[in-house]
Amino acid sequence: MPRILTYNVHRCVGADRRLDVARVADVIAALEPDIVALQELDVGRMRTNGVDQAHEIARRLEMAFHFHPAMKVEEELYGDAILTRYPERKIKSAALPGHERVSQLEPRGALWVSIDVDGREVQVFNTHLGLVPREQRNQADALVGPEWLGHPDRSGPTILLGDFNVTSGSEVFRTLARTLQPARRCTLKQSRSATFPSILPVLRIDHVFVSDDVKVLDVFAPYDRLTRLASDHLPLVMDFELS
205 phi and psi, to 5 degrees? Predict the structure, then answer.
C-alpha cells in the first residue's frame, strides 16, 4: 500500500519559532511515506543559515528529490519539492500565473514528476497557491489547463497535492474538483484531516486530488507533539492503491 503526503514545512521553522530541519525530517520519517510533496523550502537562504533544506531532508529520508524554486533572490531560492523512494523522472517545473494588477505578490509554481509505483507510472503534481482570490483562480485555471493536468502527456493515475490556501467551499477548489476527485471525499473513513494552524488545526487548506484510477484508502493529518511544533501546518497523508 503506497503512502503519499503533502507538507508545508514553513522553511523548517516551527510553531515554537525554532529552526530545525532535522525535526521536520523526523516528522516525515515517522509516517513512513513513499512519496513526499513539500512546500516552503529554503535553499541557500541567509535567514535559515544557508542550508539546502530540500537536499538535507531528502538525504535524511534516503530519497531522491526534485526541487522547483518558485522564488529566486540572487543565489537564494525558495520553493517546493517532490521526494520519493521509487524510480522517478521530472516532467516539468514552472511558474504559475499571478495577479494581473498586483505584481509584487509572492511568485508561485508547480512541479510535475512521473513516479514508477510498482510498475505503474503515477503522475504527481505538487503546488502552493497564492493568498489573493484572483491569483488563486488564475493559478487553478492554469493547473487544469493544457500545460499541466490537461497536457497530452498526463495520462493514467494522477495525484495533485499541496497547500492550496483555500477550503473546499471555494471556487478554486471546485475548479480543481471538476478535473480530479478530492481525496477526502473518496474514502469512507472519517479521520482527522484539518491541517492549519498546527497548534489547533481547524482549516482544511492542504488538499489531495486524485484521478479515478487511484483508490483512496485513508486521508489523515497526524496530530501529536512533534507535528504540532515542527511547522505551522500539519502534514496531510494519503494511503492509496492503484486500480
Answer: -115, -10
